[in-house]
Amino acid sequence: MAKTKQLVVDTNCNPRPHCTETKKSYQDNTPARQTMMGLLAFESNQGLWSSGYYSQLFGIGGVMVTVAILWLSTGYFGGIGAPFAPYFWPYLGQLPKKKERKRPVRVYMDGCFDLMHYGHANALRQAKVLGDQLVVGVVSDEEIVANKGPPVLSMDERLTLVSGLKWVDEVIPNAPYEITEEFMNTLFNKYNIDYIIHGDDPCLLPDGTDAYALAKKVGRYKQIKRTEGVSSTDIVGRILLTFKQKEASITETTMDANVAVNQNGGADTCDLVKSQLSNFLPTSRRIMQFSNGQAPSPGARVVYIDGAFDLFHAGHVEILRSARQLGDFLLVGVHDDQAIRDRRGYRPIMHLHERTLSVLACRYVDEVIIGAPWEVSRDMITTFNISLVVHGTVTEGSSVGGIDPYAVPKSMGIFQTITSPKPITTVSVATRIIDNHEAYKKRNLKKKASEDRYYTQKKFVSGD
Q1: Cα–Cα distance, 69 to 95 (Å, whole number)
Q2: Percent of the chain's residues with pLDDT above 90
Q3: All domains in the chain, ordered by first residue
């Protein structure tokens, strides 16, 4: 006969408070009670599914455990086990249960993302906070033409910009401008979207109706706060003022607002100058929201690249990605407005803090030096423990007096020129608008009316 392994039972085990009377009534050492308490002690100390004991639940041992549970809980054998159920069920509840894995909350936000700026980035940052995964729809060229006017950037460029943002998990190209019932069902069923997100500024179709009316109707709409001080319409206005040479007497070498007003003296010129000035109010909190907040780990290979990063475009995203692949930590230097003016002859279209936020929003960037020096010094290399300084083949601006800003890293043997993946520049993007300035003037007038209504009716929106 096979020997039965004896289970040791702690007879001093205290029952739960509500089981006191049960213990007094059934405080015996019957084989049934010893078997069950032994099973509970076995499960508590060893784990029910531990590999060393799992096999013991089969064969004779498994049959005995099954018989004991049926006898004590249901009275299956003779109906005498029912009184034991109230005592043992609390302990059976301690058996491990499989945890249900919750599905991540997926949120959707769409946009044209033409002339991508930090306002777009901040909107997507806020949208990501409302869920676990952010899916972004990039509106098609045809839909933009029908609802706004000609886009400045191609679909490929806009996809590169959106995909390059650190908060974006997935991108849907050629999304419709209006959330139709058909597209909304596609979002819910194909992409498993839980909520559709948009800013507090109205998004109206040509007929004046709300583009997100259906999403609001079914209760799957959430609203975020619009980022103040910037819009694509505003940037187009700045570009037209900065670069146009035929219809305005403001030239690239007289971009100072006071000089422009004195020379022209007209109301139209004052309006142009006002439209060129940024209304953005930078705060330390906003920079913290965009920052990774992490320093390079010990021994990390720090790569440094600098530039103006004006009118942040697809070329910037690609060169930053290439630079990041050369090390473990990408440090980016953003030159201040005056340094850029000294070398280009005109101020940047976006000022320093605007350009800083655009760079920080890029998923390939780890840290930014705000107002970085034009020349890379040995002290700077030591301070930031820079291992490699890189520069692209596509550049804008020139060195003053023939001074090479990378002379020191070159002498140290830590400089490398990398091929710029895209031949896009700030000037080339601006030229697209200048060459079609009449079309963009009409687009701006159309958009300006709706933006004026927004600011007239604007109310405070909490949360950011």
Answers
A1: 14
A2: 50
A3: 17-92 (no CATH), 106-224 (3.40.50.620), 232-277+428-456 (no CATH), 284-424 (3.40.50.620)
